[in-house]
Amino acid sequence: MPWTTAPPRRLVILGVAASDCHVVANQLIARFLRDEGFEVENLGACTPVEEFARACVRRPEAEALLVGSLNGHIHEDLRGLREAKRSGRVHCPVVVGGNLSVGSSKSPASDRRLYALGVDRIVHDPATLPAVLAQLRSAGGHFIAGRALGGRAVVERSVGAGASGAGHARVP
């Protein structure tokens, strides 16, 4: 019987946006992803863009940066993201999720603002993260921004690092 080694674990960097101290969902998502076979570097709560960038530089094998927010202030918290991507310090797709705006009214304009800040994908259901990460990986470095249409992910355009997407994808 030949010896085989386990495949390397896929690394994601996880954290909660700078002004947000909510950690319960963060811990649950970290555990869920570990159970799905991912290596998770969890930066915890109140993580500024600069700390995410340092983690990406330290861990160049990271395939995604996952940022959560529950207080709704993620737009302000990610103001330095576009520059961190432009400089190459954040080299992987940025996926955000949680409560992404203040108040009960959610609008497409809020998502567009996040894409303009450098976000590559918005996830509204953390259970879809493994499928979203698989899609990003299979895109071969071109991040796919899509929109839901009849329960299917519809690709609107390929988005390179630092570009903005037109919508978000829902994984069937």
Description:
With 172 residues, this protein is α/β, with parallel strands linked by helices. Helices cover 30% and strands 24% of the residues. The chain is built from six helices and seven strands. The chain has helices at residues 24-35, 49-58, 74-77, 81-86, 108-117, 129-138; strands at residues 10-16, 38-42, 64-69, 94-98, 121-123, 143-149, 152-159. It has a five-stranded parallel β-sheet, sandwiched between helices. A two-stranded antiparallel sheet has the order 6-7.
Give the CA-based shape. globular
Strand order of the largest sheet: 2-1-3-4-5
Helix run count: 6
- Alpha carbon gap, first and last residue: 39 Å
Indicate the low-confidence ranges by residue numbers: 142-172
Estimated radius of gyration: 15 Å
Residue share in helices?
25-40%
Main beta sheet: 5 strands, parallel
Helix-strand string: EHEHEHHEHEHEE
* Secondary structure category: alpha/beta
**Strand segment count:** 7
Give the overall average pLDDT.
82
Strand content: 15-25%
Features:
single chain, alpha/beta, 30% helix, 5-stranded parallel sheet, 172 residues, disordered C terminus, two-stranded antiparallel ribbon
Question: How do the helices and strands line up, and which of them pair or pack?
Answer:
Elements: E1 10-16, H1 24-35, E2 38-42, H2 49-58, E3 64-69, H3 74-77, H4 81-86, E4 94-98, H5 108-117, E5 121-123, H6 129-138, E6 143-149, E7 152-159
Parallel strand pairs: 1-2, 1-3, 3-4, 4-5
Antiparallel strand pairs: 6-7
